[in-house]
Amino acid sequence: MAMDAFMLILAVLAAVVLSSFLSRFIPKVSTPLVQIALGAGLTLLPFYPRVALDPSLFMVLFIAPLLYLEAHDIDKSALAKTLRMSISLAIGLALMTMVVIGYALHNAWPIIPLAAAFALGSALGPTDAIAVSSIGHDASVSPRQRSVLKGESLFNDASGVVGFQFSILAAVTGSFSLRHAAGEFLISFIGGTLFGLAVGMLSNWLFEMLRSFGWETTTTRILMELFLPFLIYLTADEIAHVSGVLAVVAAGLVIRFDRTGVGPNVSRTNIVSSSVWSVLSFSLNGTVFILLGMQLPNAITTTWSHSAVSHALLVEIIALTCVIVIGLRFLWMVAVLAIARDRRTGKRRRMTPHRWRSAAVMTFGGPKGTITLSLMFTIPYVVNSGELFPLRDELIFVASGVIIVTLLLANFMLPLLAPNAEDIHPTELTDITITLVRRTVEELSNRVTDENRRAVLYVIDSYTKRITRLKQQAGHVDSHAMGDLQNDALHWEKDYIKAQLDHTKASTDMEPRVQELQIEACERMLDQIMNSLRHISKPTSSGRNVSQIRGRMRALQRRLQIVTRRASNKFLRTTPLLNEHEIASYVRTLQAQAFEHVIDRLYEEMGKTTYGTEYCSALILDYRRAEAALRSRPRLVNDGTTRRQIDEIKHESYAIELNLIRDMLESAEITRLQARHLRRNVYVMQVDADSEL
């Protein structure tokens, strides 16, 4: 059994890693759907271990830390503005869903007891916080809409769990007291919130006191922080007998000890903590949906193969349940929007087509997921009388069908209802870029040491100049036109370098060592430029991936030729060995020449109509700055150690930018289209790692 559990962990982690790669190649399909499919595929493998999943363990092991992190990272000011709407969805809509589905399902399928139908309705009330944070990257979901959806998913778990528990209790015992259920619900809801707030404030005081005494270390702080959501959930659920879900959410909202304190030690600890939570969040998110996918086949096949109920009736019940869940949610959203008053005028606003579409977006933006299936698996097998729980497998089957349908609708309907605009407003993209650059500077400033201070400050200074230029250009540059010109300029650089490479290879009167140095410099420049062109090329052709693979194969072939040639020279001593300093010197010389060539071409284009004069002028200024920085570096930084440090820090800064873009995309701060433009800019800059950023 222990080996089976270990094999299951390895299989799940492998599937999570694979999903991160697959999502890059199928961006139109949300990552949760990819992970569910992988989880279902795992069950088909011959070595798949048959390990039962304890739903209560699932809640504490996965849902507690993920909800804590979601609450901790949510925009508190945005949540405060949309709190009323989020609470109305989390409590009002969840309870309404329970009642309507209960009565509708009992009337349509009388064999289901009313209490069991209520249990299904309760389980279908909560939306999935993890799915909400993952879907919609290809949809233009407004910050307010996303804030409402996230707030709802944080709070509606408690109402769903409590309603489910009382419905199951009524189904098992055969008795139900509305007064008792309402009282227990209030105690669980309010008690869980107050308990979480108290523990959160106590945690703030404790961590800040440890820091003031100098007792906090990176290891103890991160271990205690990781331990916190599990402690809160278990204490609230097992000892205080209040909602552990709401306690975790409330604590996550008020905890702020990682946002306080100054000094390099605190900064380093916060960086490590952020990295650990980032890895843990992705791993747990992926694991949740992998496990969900692993549970679905068994839940579906058991019912489909052995149920006494006809297959057609099961499909009809799933369809009816989906219509009720989606229709009721849409009507609730329309009602909320219709009665909402304008903050400035205090009057109700009429339902325009835009507001109807907003209601539809909010409807499909609340898919069901792991909480629903976890609750359904806790349905007991027998009731107090000793008889089997009525239609347990069929109820799980219906819930599984609704989960799949709502996830599919969220994935494919949101981009249709709220598609991302094809054009990005220049000012909007500039503002996002400035935010990205500032975060990069903050990250770099936290990595300053006595050894690399000079190099890091040099790179930070170049980023500061970049922010200044971005502010000057705000609102004056068409991002598409400028991007096309930058792309063509890279092609001009590539053609110039290729011509130089061909000329060098064909030369017969050049000293062998100099020829070897120039060939090496040209090859390295071509590798950099081709890599950037592969990344920034527009995905207009279905054969783009094939073209990228071919380009990488050609680059690999060139690198192998260089390595083989240098190895041959080393052993045969046909030419003196090259060193990196000489190669870097030749690369900089070649870069400067290529810059001059591009500048000349840009001056020629200014007299034509292919590109706008203002774009050619702006790009000439960028190339002039890069050329000036390149030629002045030997005077500014005259020792090899600092030069190498600057190169390392610049490459590190590019990696930081790319990671920040990924984080902003995952947290829905930017769309996929905006992320593609931001990455394009980074790849263009990587062509010249020695020039000004």
TrEMBL record:
Residues 15-416 form the Cation/H+ exchanger transmembrane domain. The keyword Transmembrane helix applies. The chain crosses the membrane at residues 47-71, 83-105, 158-178, 185-207, 227-255, 276-297, 317-340, 361-383, 395-417. It is a multi-pass membrane protein. GO terms for biological process: regulation of intracellular pH; sodium ion import across plasma membrane. One of its GO terms (cellular component) is plasma membrane. Gene3D superfamilies: 6.10.140.1330. It holds the Pfam family Na_H_Exchanger. Its main location: membrane. InterPro entries: Cation/H_exchanger_CPA1 (IPR018422), Cation/H_exchanger_TM (IPR006153). It comes from the Bacteria. The lineage of its organism: Bacteria, Bacillati, Actinomycetota, Actinomycetes, Bifidobacteriales. Keywords: Cell membrane, Ion transport, Membrane, Sodium, Sodium transport, Transmembrane, Transmembrane helix, Transport. GO terms for molecular function: potassium:proton antiporter activity; sodium:proton antiporter activity. This is Sodium:proton antiporter. It is found in: Cell membrane.
